[in-house]
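Notes from hallway chat w/ T.B., transcribed later so I don't forget. T.B. wanted the structure written out for a chain they're using in a teaching module, and asked if we could keep both sequence and structure tokens in one place. Agreed to drop them here.
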Amino acid sequence: MIVVIDGPAGSGKSSTAKAVAAKLQIQFLDSGALYRVATLIFLNADKDYQTFFDRLEESKISFHFKDGKFHAILNDQDVSDEIRSMEVSKHVSDVASNPDVRKYVNDLMREVVKSNVYIADGRDLGTAVFPDAALKFYMVADLETRAQRRYEEVRANGKNVTLEEVKQNITQRDDTDSNRSSDPLKQADDAILVDTSDMTFDEQVAFICQKIEQLISQQKT
């Protein structure tokens, strides 16, 4: 079974999904991290798309969720911290908008979730990747709230960045994600809207856990 949380950058998708996974003892899949791994490969290829696609096909990408953290592995190296840099953030939307990159990452995710119960977060999981997901959420928050959250996350990882830089990055990513020709960011018709602007973290985790537990209970009856 797959449960998905979509929404714009900084809306709280990843942190919420990880907390839900830990609380319900299910697996967590961070689709955004996988696109960041692809972006890291792109940057290491000096932003040359031909070299990038050659390296992408040759690369070994894996991941696991352990002790509350999603670990992204590239060619047997843990790049979980490296993919959170501002340089990766500046290019991830452009790389992720490429149809060939999206197919590569989507195929990787679909193969993984064939077994076990997963909760995943991303931009288009409920509309393009897993349209038949058992449960879909679309998480939003106002720009100021999202920028502050991402700023604190980046600073906690030791990166030197200003709040204004983070806000500009999120605004640019919103525009790119919403207007890309391939699988643009949008709410699935059957997704549950969760506005976290005025919700505490514990409240949003509890809300989603309750919905999942209700579904599991219904499936057992």
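Follow-up for T.B.: The first helix runs from residue 13 to 24. Might be a good example for the class.
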